[in-house]
Amino acid sequence: MTEMLEAERSSSSVAYLGPEGSFSHLVARKRYGNGTTLVPCPSVDEVFDYLDETPDCLAVVPIENSSGGIITATVDRIVSEQSRIHIREEIALNVKLALLGREGDSISKIYSHFAPFHHCEKWLKTHYPKAQQVTTPSTSNAVIFASQEKGSAAIGPRENAERYGLDVLHYPIQAEVPNVTQFFVVGHEANPPSPENTKTSLAVELPDSSGSLFHFLEPFAKSGVNLKRIESRPIMGQPNKYRFFVEIEGSSVDDAAVEALKAAEAVSLRIRNLGSYPASSRFDS
Length: 285
Known about the structure:
single chain; alpha/beta; D-Maltodextrin-Binding Protein, domain 2; Alpha-Beta Plaits; 3 domains; seven-stranded mixed sheet; five-stranded mixed sheet; 10 helices; 32% strand
């Protein structure tokens, strides 16, 4: 584990979903410190494009929010047949959201990423029922847009107020409801086998026949392996065909997981191991 972390610290750069001030930026800073070159990219696709073009780079991308759900753009790039990217680590962020704007403004428009909008839905209906909600690629994009328009506000990290010249109008928003976002650290190299790799992700293709999903899942139940995520995603160019993103507890040195995977492979068209990785890091925003 120590060797893996040292190797990641020595990577030439870490890409993230930007611009500066996004929650991905916050996680990248907390995980890698200020001594690492952090590269903002305007969309999840462009994070992966940068990674494809930069072999010794790592990237931090959001994968799921406890209120907004799975980030499909991340899943689609990871499970793509052309992808050779491996998941290196999962990081959790306890998210606290702020409404940022200008004191005294009458707020008619609010910008944010879709996940904060889901989390703040009840609060927004109570406090800003008539405000137009505009979804942006990231929370930092939202603050930039709000900073350029009178009567606009944004939902995002509190620290962005000073960065983009706005005031904190309300903080925290709906703090009584837990709000956690998971991020993946991804790169070109897979982690070495280790008992500290507590999760494994898979890209799975199954026969288009009755019971195929049941037969795939059955070995995990029999081996006592917990499935944490399963998402179906359409395969581009193949209508009504799907590839599954599956996450299990366990790794390549876990006997139960190895046994279950061997049995699952026997009833699958294809299984690609996307990486075994630790999921112990947790930060506060």
